[in-house]
Amino acid sequence: MNREPSLRHPLLERLAEARRVTDELFDIVKPDHLYDRPIAERHRIVFYIGHLEAFDRNLFDQRLFDLPNSNAAYDQLFAFGIDPVDGGLPTDQPADWPTLDQVREYCDRVRADIDGKFDPIQLVANPVSPGESPAQLLEVAIEHRLMHAETLAYMLHQLPIDWKIPPADALSERTSDRAIAQETVHVPAGVATLGLARESGVFGWDNEFDAVRVEVPDFEIDRFMVTNGDYLRFIDAGGYWHRDFWSDEDWAWKEEARIAHPAFWIPGKTGWKLRTMFDEIDLPLDWPVYVSYAEAHAYARWAGKALPTEAQWQRAASSAPHVAEGNFDFRRWDPSSVQAHPENTSAFGVEGQFGNGWEWTSTKFGPLNGFEAFPFYLGYSANFYDDKHFVIKGGSPRTAACILRPSFRNWFQGHYQYVYAGFRCVSV
Fold it and tell me: Which CATH class is domain 184-427?
């Protein structure tokens, strides 16, 4: 077969590029630490090396084509991740996992088996499973991998700096002491469209369908994301430790876990430091603050405001050029100033809603009208319709460009601190 890369289908090119992104991400971890667990609620790093390939194999096998059954035990072992809910922590030990050579041999075999089944010129025309489009399944594999490229960055961020190997593109602006004059803009009453129309033919995940039009009353919203400087004023005023600004559930979590400050902040002798992926720097006041939903909610109450609903956030983003220049698509490892990309501005003057940091909304993650779970991934969304997860919108520096589409609905539970997510406030 002719496997000249230039002759491959664009989706196969995208799959190859997504593999490159995740391969390079694992390369920043020194090999001695690939069996560590940087976040207590998550799997060890080695699991994710096997998971990405096992997911693709389990997705494609018997749907696009028959794949050799070379290691059914590993197909199962690496099949499912962990969602950190209810305080349960995994108890496995490094010795419970296969060796790195065994995992990599499995991954190489799976990739070779998959690549050997795809026609180099066009996608397979007749999937084994009727009604499941090869293009749709490839989109799922690509975006699943790219989502992990981001969430793995959250995990690797928690590793000690000297356990990592900074790539050549790791350098970024080191510090900033600019304080942003936070201002609000008016968003007139109008319609927000959540999700995608099923008949549009555009790829989306199951929770993006079917499109819903929501009438949104007028409101005021912060022009910029809340910055580290803004949040520092909240901390200096004692609001972070003031019971009145926290819900009962959030305060109980904060007390039990002894949460004393945002996860990415480090107390220093001369002031706060920020832990970036590869360094500790003076707190940049004009970067967006990354916090949990609980911390964002407390700040909003202190400020006499609220977090936007998903519909308000979507309305505020009207006509924003979400794929213009910006801090996304793995261009940087760190945030940048909330004022860095004025070209990413909505019709109402709201800046920076796509890239530089996901944004919490007050909307609990749930189905849109007409929701139908993917038959090949039944639990992707439905397992999280539990009133414990909140919708986040936009994207971060480590979000792939294809995931920045306005209809994309991300979610995390409200007490998870490790997400590259910030927020902006609204008032009505």
Answer: alpha beta
